[in-house]
Amino acid sequence: MGPATAATAGGTPSQLRLRLPFPTPALARVAQQVLDVDHELKPSETKRTITVDGGCLHVAFQSITDRTLRASVGAFLDAVLLCMNVMEAFPATSDPTPSATISTA
User: Fold this and answer.
1) What is the DSSP code (8-state) at residue 81?
2) Residue 80 predicted with pLDDT over 50
3) What domain range is 49 assigned to?
4) pLDDT confidence of residue 102
5) What CATH number does residue 55 fall under?
6) Which long-range contacts (CB under 8 A, 24 or more apart) does 41-46 make?
7) Distance between CA 58 and CA 21 in Å, rounded?
8) How far apart are CA 74 and CA 84, in angstroms?
9) What would the pLDDT profile of 5-57 be if each residue is shown by its tens digit?
10) If both were cysteines, with which of 4, 31, 40, 91 could 16 make a disulfide (CB 3.0 to 4.6 Å apart)?
11) Does 22 fall in a domain?
12) Is 50 inside any structural domain?
C-alpha cells in the first residue's frame, strides 16, 4: 500500500489506503460486514471502500480535503478498535448453537 497523498493547490483529492491484518479470513469478513454498515456522515465529501483479501481488510479513503480525510479516518479507526475489542471479548465458537434455551411455558 502506498502512503497517504495530500491535497494540492490544483484540487487533487486527499487519499489514504489502509491494510489491517486479522487473525483469520473469517474475522476479516466479519469486520467488513460490521464496518460497512456505518456509512460516511458526508458522502459527498468522503468516499470509503472496504474490501477483504485473505485475512486482511483493505480500506481506501478519498476526501475533498485533508481535514475531512483526517476526521473520517479517525472515526473509522475508532469503529475498528471497537469491533476488534468485541471480537476479542466474545470469541467465535465452532458450535453456533446457543448454550441456553428460552422457555415460553
Assistant:
1) H
2) yes
3) 14-86
4) 57
5) 3.30.310.50
6) 41/75, 42/68, 46/72
7) 9
8) 15
9) 444 444 568 999 999 999 999 999 999 999 999 888 888 999 999 999 999 99
10) 4
11) yes
12) yes
